[in-house]
Design brief:
With 413 residues, the protein is an all-alpha fold. It has a single domain (9-409), classed as MFS general substrate transporter like domains (Growth Hormone, Chain: A, Up-down Bundle). Helices cover 75% and strands 2% of the residues. It is built from 14 helices and four strands. α2 packs parallel to α6 (145-173), α5 runs antiparallel to α13 (358-383) and α10 packs parallel to α12. Residues 1-6 have low confidence and may be disordered.
Length: 413
């Protein structure tokens, strides 16, 4: 009997749950920065050359740099973990880097320092993301991969969604008088908690997660395909799934760099914005395990296409919001549609990967997710000058294109 069958909790591999809980703590700390960094920059705490860019655009670049660096390094990190056959080690190394980078924001008072820290965070993410996704795929059978991907992502997203909510409270409730340290503002408190979260996450992984015995060092050549070997299709199916993931995550991040404009339009503060941001993440975390399990039973493609179709009008509706609750509802609905894309796409890619290539080939989707987050932040930071609806209209058109792409370029599973 394999270890996949022996080590379960409530029908789920214990390693999936343990890794999800550990990543939840790390994601909570890291997502603090989505709300905190734009406010930190807008507060005047950061000085230095902005190269003639507007504050919204420079904020988008700061937020997007993390995903760009992470995406550039992920294929190599995935390949190295394939060659080494050691996933746990790469997860822990990434979390250690996250810890030091998060604490380093305490001394970040120039754009140059912030850029450097975001780059280090991107490298840390490359190490952690590729190894953890490959690990979840490796401990899963074909008939449970969708459920396991959904559960893992849900834990991670609970942390990711809770982070902005808590950071909004921390920033608005500061400053804080602490023994020995003295008074600190809400920004410093958020940076310190983010560092502590990464440290806790690293400890949890080191104590609770082990590499599966099935994982062996791979000598296979790294293979990335854009075009398909099947004459019926133009694109490789994993590449097409990567594009759909990119589109989903682009819409996910459209709010990230326009927080001041959103708050001004809807006459609200940082705490309400954090609720709006977290509404998507919370619904995504809630729905993913159920969608993943259904995709194990009824097929993955149908959910991916339906999710992208739903994202088009829902994304556009956000740009038409005139009340805070409008945006909360739209973001929650966006979370449901995104759940129909995210876990089934990862599971289907896992079904299609070759043995010994999990880290490298699954990085196509994790890279696409990271680039999408960066693209969404940069897109909204630039397009907002053409009107509040502009970035959301572009996101809606991308979602419609993604639905057509998956429908025509991904085979039935």
């Amino acid at each position: 009997m394999s270890s996949i069958q022996q080590s379960t909790l409530f029908g789920t591999d214990r390693r999936v749950i343990a890794l999800g809980v550990a990543r939840m703590a790390d994601a909570m700390g890291n997502s603090f920065l989505i709300v905190v960094l734009p406010l930190y920059i807008a507060s005047g705490s950061v000085s230095g050359e902005v190269f003639g860019f507007s504050e919204s655009l420079i904020t988008g670049i700061v937020l997007g740099l993390y995903g760009l660096v992470s995406s550039a390094f992920q294929p190599f990190a995935g390949r190295i973990s394939d060659r080494a056959g050691k996933r746990r080690l790469f997860v822990i190394l990434g979390l250690i880097l996250f810890m030091f980078a998060n604490f380093a924001y305490v001394i970040a008072d120039t754009y140059e320092i912030i850029f450097m820290i975001r780059a280090v965070q991107g490298i840390a993410a490359a190490l952690t993301i590729t190894a953890s996704i490959a690990l979840v795929s490796e401990v899963s059978r074909a008939d449970s991969r969708g459920k396991n991907m959904g559960i893992y992502n849900s834990f991670r997203l609970i942390g990711f969604g809770a982070g902005p909510l808590l950071s909004g409270i921390l920033v608005e409730a500061g400053p804080y008088a602490l023994p020995v340290v003295g008074e600190i503002n809400g920004f410093i408190a958020s940076f310190c908690i983010a560092g502590l979260m990464a440290m806790v996450s690293g400890i949890l992984v080191s104590l609770m997660v082990q590499d599966p015995v099935e994982t062996k060092p791979s000598t296979e050549k790294m293979v990335f395909r854009v075009t398909s070997d099947d004459p019926y299709y133009t694109l490789d199916p994993i590449f097409a799934l990567g594009i759909s993931t990119f589109i989903m995550s682009t819409g996910f991040a459209l709010l990230a760099s326009i927080e001041p404009q959103v708050n001004e339009r809807l006459s609200q503060g940082a705490f309400v914005f954090s609720i709006q941001f977290s509404a998507l993440v919370g619904m995504l975390a809630l729905i993913q395990p159920f969608v993943g399990k259904l995709s194990d039973q009824y097929g993955r493609k149908v959910f991916i296409v339906a999710g992208l179709v739903g994202l088009a009008p829902i994304t556009l509706a956000q740009g038409l919001s005139t009340e805070s609750w409008h945006l909360i509802v739209a973001r929650a609905l966006q979370g449901i549609s995104a759940a129909m894309v995210f876990a089934p796409a990862l599971a289907l890619a896992g079904d299609l990967t070759k043995k010994g290539q999990e880290g490298a080939q699954l990085s196509v989707l994790t890279v696409s997710f990271g680039i999408g987050i960066s693209a969404g932040a940069i897109l909204s930071g630039y397009a907002i000058r053409f009107g509040f609806i502009a970035p959301f209209a572009i996101g809606a058109m991308l979602a419609a294109f993604g639905a057509i792409l998956v429908k025509t370029q991904v085979p039935e599973d």
